[in-house]
Design goal:
This protein is an alpha/beta fold and 292 residues long. Among the domains are: 89 residues, Beta Barrel (Elongation Factor Tu (Ef-tu), domain 3); 111 residues, Rossmann fold, CATH 3.40.50.80. It is built from nine helices and 16 strands. A seven-stranded antiparallel sheet has the order 6-1-2-5-4-3-7, sandwiched between helices. The chain has a seven-stranded mixed sheet with strand order 11-10-9-8-12-13-16, with helices on both faces. It has a two-stranded antiparallel sheet with strand order 14-15. A hairpin with a 4-residue loop joins strand 4 and strand 5.
């Protein structure tokens, strides 16, 4: 049976970041913090991409998805309108975040990483933890979900590379300061670009603060069969879709992960360019029709 998922609302969080509320009642009912879905907008040969479930409304039977327009499929999704549908959503997938009352949890988000971090930080807050949030991006325009984090954080620090909002710093600077406090945080959670997570983990390891990361790797099926999401953790091969997506950040081989993330970069760039050209042609056609 083919079930499509209707988009009920859509908004743009920054220049290339979009969010939708989409019908997926079974996923909304079963989802827990930290889990994700595999999304596709073509029934046949379209690309499948993993997206974290950024929020749910069980009464409405909807989930919230947030993504960044970086390639062909994410560009196609950005072009979808309210009332249109996402062809398939498989999930919830992956292991949920282990939530308990740790004490003080510092949550570090970089760019689009704020999206998967938000439901985890929210669940940690609801479990009685003190939440210290650190949000970072290159510029003010790329900071997303700041108001949502402010609502759940006991302390919130915002940094930008260019100093256009908050402190001019990388996220590792306030992270080091917080982890040097007495007492230090009981747990750190870092989600964002691989290079950011690598240096966050290097910082927390030096200061002996346990750190969880959520990895977003290449995925096809989301069930561990394709092997595209494999990473090295503690010297052993793990599959992000079934063993993760969260791991002990001090055990992840980020250098190997980053190499694998670029495995299909040439093909991705070609597909993205072809889609951009296609959209230009459609836009030109629409303009001609309006003039006629």
């Amino acid at each position: 049976m083919n079930v499509s998922h209707k988009i009920l609302s859509k908004s743009q969080l920054s220049e290339n970041v979009f969010t939708v509320e989409v019908e997926a009642p079974l996923v909304a009912r079963a989802r827990k913090a930290g889990q994700f879905v595999i999304v596709g907008i073509s029934d046949d040969y379209g690309e499948r991409i993993p997206l974290t479930i950024a929020g749910v409304d069980t009464d409405k039977g909807t989930i919230r998805l947030i993504w960044q327009r970086v390639g062909k499929t994410t560009a196609e999704m950005a072009d979808l309108k309210i009332g249109e549908s996402i062809d398939y959503i498989a999930g919830p997938l992956g292991n949920p975040t282990h939530i308990e009352k740790f004490g003080t949890v510092v949550c570090v988000g970089g760019g689009i990483g704020n999206a998967p971090l938000l439901p985890i930080a929210t669940a940690m807050k609801e479990a009685g933890n003190k939440i210290i949030g650190i949000l970072g991006a290159r510029t003010k325009e790329l900071i997303i979900l700041e108001d949502e984090f402010a609502a759940i954080s006991d302390e919130l620090i915002v940094v930008t590379d260019d100093g256009s909002h908050g402190r001019k710093a990388l996220v590792t600077e306030p992270l080091q300061e917080i982890c040097s406090r007495d007492p230090k945080p009981d747990l750190a959670v870092a989600i964002g670009p691989a290079i950011m997570m690598k240096f966050c983990c290097r910082t927390t390891k030096q200061l002996d603060v346990p750190t969880q990361v959520s990895l977003n790797t290449i995925m096809v099926d989301g069930t561990g069969m394709c092997g595209g999401c494999r990473v090295e953790v503690g010297g052993k091969t793990k599959f992000v879709c079934v063993d993760g997506p969260e791991f002990d950040g001090h055990q992840v081989n980020f250098d190997l992960m980053m190499k694998r993330l670029g495995a299909y970069r040439t093909q991705e760039q070609k597909a993205s360019a072809q889609y951009a050209e296609h959209r230009c042609k459609i836009g030109l056609t629409d303009t001609i029709r309006k003039k006629q």
